[in-house]
Specification:
Strands 20, 21, 22, 23, 24, 25, 26 and 27 form an 8-stranded antiparallel beta sheet that branches. The protein has a 5-stranded mixed beta sheet with strand order 11-10-9-8-34, with no helix packed on it. The termini are far apart. The protein is built from 8 helices and 38 strands. It is mainly β. About 10% of the residues lie in helices and about 40% in strands.
Length: about 525
């Protein structure tokens, strides 16, 4: 009991405890945390040993980050943040939506960023709650759908070519809908090869628009996807392995969640049968953000949901249902959590989990970075290792793991909409040898277009079925955002690996394989083209 009390106190201590030493070089702020010396109580020797083991272990798995261009990314009011290579120069760029100031588009030039939103036509000064990149017209240029908080019609910005300018084409396509917009996702729910559009709302039923050769048809009613509950987050993935994308929706204000199984384009809510409906104790509780990863390495994608109230980790029971394993995994906490995001920051093959928290008028409401300690007889366990630097520049909404500098280690982009917050970018200082134990898999169709959201990427030790790591082509998350960027997968200590990508097709699940990939010499990103 005494040890448990100690750990609780560590998590509850002041977020400003300690002091910082700072130095600035090459536009990068480096903060070195100097913690105060704590008095040691005269407790039993065995308990002292346990404490030493616990604290020394935290140092070994804690990541080291440095801030990138902190002055540029210090503006407050940020909410969604989404990454894509909008100008086709080989470097991913970041869009950030704001409340209280114009939106920004940061073009990357070999690790340096510049805001070009006004120059390309994306600097809306409307409270922006959703941002989803996707090549809706299949021309090879990534377009952007932007969702607002209410009143102003949403916009679909067509990329007019290599990011030189964006034009709002939503009115002509019937996509200028209004409402309290939340998650927006470009997905191919009917497996016809083009991107359809899903939009979640807090104040009206969710909607689904089918892409019919560049024109859009509202199929909300006939598909059964028009959930009237107060939706916030949503994520698409193939829950049961039948070859099409299903939809999980996190609902707020006391509403239960939805899990919509895709039965050939008709959606059935099976949340209760699958164990993820999460009945609420009151209207103050509810779901906010979902995120998907195979946390236990069994080959099936699991689900974490950040909630107002207790958040939850659901293990996928081989495509039959989900089981709540939150407490067993060491992830039980009860607070105003908003946004989860999985990312293997140390390339050990086990996805780690960042969870942002938010409370009005609290600049640094607690965030968590849970390191995946691996599986044992009781299943995977997680431990909070949030670094001091991130603690002091944390998120309230947007959370994205992205290898923006292509060094093989996942970096971290956060957005905090509090007046005292920022939208900081952190470079992961993983040692170079460890960083190279990864691949960046860019999944495209036969024409080189990004039309495969929800595709599953798995890495095996070469010539075996020993699964090392896995990931999904993004279908939405990170707070009401969607990225178009390569899937980061670890390769461990393997000299060579086999990469398998499972895509959804008219005939069901289709597997495309590349054998004998050497992580040390593989292109970054490694483009995997899916044949028709």
């Amino acid at each position: 009991m005494l040890l448990a009390s100690f750990r609780w106190k560590r998590f509850g201590q002041s977020r400003r405890e300690g002091r910082d030493r700072q130095d600035r070089r090459d536009g990068i702020l480096r903060v070195h945390r100097v913690l105060p010396i704590q008095p040691v109580l005269p407790i039993l020797p065995c308990l002292c040993a346990l404490l030493v083991i616990s604290l020394s272990g935290a140092t070994a798995s804690s990541p080291t980050f440095e801030l990138v261009q902190p002055e540029l990314f210090s503006a407050s009011g940020a909410m969604p943040n989404a990454w894509a290579d909008f100008d086709n120069d080989g470097h991913v760029d970041e869009f950030v939506g704001f409340r209280g100031r114009p939106n920004r588009l940061y073009r990357q030039d070999h690790g340096r960023f510049e805001d070009v939103a006004a120059a390309v036509g994306l600097a809306d000064n409307i409270e922006t709650r959703a941002a989803a990149w996707g090549d809706y017209d299949g021309d090879g240029n990534i377009d952007l759908y932007v969702g607002f908080a209410g009143g102003a019609p949403n916009k679909l910005y067509r990329n007019d070519g290599d990011g030189r300018h964006f034009t709002n084409v939503a009115p002509g396509l019937g996509l200028d809908v209004t409402g309290v917009t939340r998650q927006v996702s470009w997905i191919d729910y009917d497996n016809d090869g083009d991107l359809d559009l899903f939009i979640a709302f807090r104040d009206k039923p969710n909607r689904l628009f089918r892409n019919d050769g560049g024109r859009f048809t509202d199929v909300t009613a006939e598909s059964g996807i028009g959930d009237p509950r107060k939706s916030v987050g949503a994520v698409w993935f193939d829950i049961n392995g039948d070859g099409d994308l299903d939809l999980f929706v996190a609902n707020q204000n006391g509403d239960t969640n939805g899990l919509f199984r895709n039965d050939g384009g008709r959606f059935i809510d099976v949340a209760r049968e699958w164990g993820v409906d999460a009945p609420r104790r009151s209207a103050e509780f509810g779901g906010v953000g979902p995120a998907v990863a195979d946390f236990d390495g069994d080959g099936y994608f699991d689900l974490f949901v950040a909630n107002y109230g207790p958040s939850a980790l659901y293990r996928n029971e081989r495509g039959r249902r989900f089981t709540d394993v939150t407490k067993a995994a060491g992830l039980f906490f009860e607070q105003h959590a908003t946004t989860p995001s999985w990312g293997d920051y140390d390339n050990d093959g086990r996805p780690d989990l960042y969870v942002a928290g938010f409370l009005v008028n609290v600049t640094h409401y607690p965030d968590h970075l849970f390191h995946n300690e691996g599986t044992n007889a009781g299943g995977a366990r997680f431990r909070d290792v949030l670094p001091a630097l991130v603690n002091d520049h944390d998120a309230s909404h947007g959370v994205q793991w992205v290898d923006f500098d292509q060094d093989g280690a996942l970096d971290l982009a956060l957005a905090n909409n509090d007046p005292g917050g920022g939208h900081y970018l952190f470079r992961n200082l993983l040692p170079a040898a460890r960083a190279r134990q990864s691949l960046a898999i860019d999944v495209v169709d036969s024409k080189g277009r990004h039309t495969k959201p929800g595709a599953e990427v798995r890495v095996y030790a070469a010539g075996t079925r020993r699964l090392i790591s896995s990931g999904l082509v993004d279908t939405g998350g990170g707070y009401c955002s969607q990225n178009v960027m390569p899937v980061h997968v670890a390769t461990g200590a393997a000299d060579r690996v086999d990469v398998e990508v499972t895509t959804m097709a008219k005939g069901g699940r289709k597997v495309t394989k590349i054998s004998g990939v050497d992580p040390k010499t593989a292109l970054r990103p490694l483009v995997l083209r899916i044949s028709d």
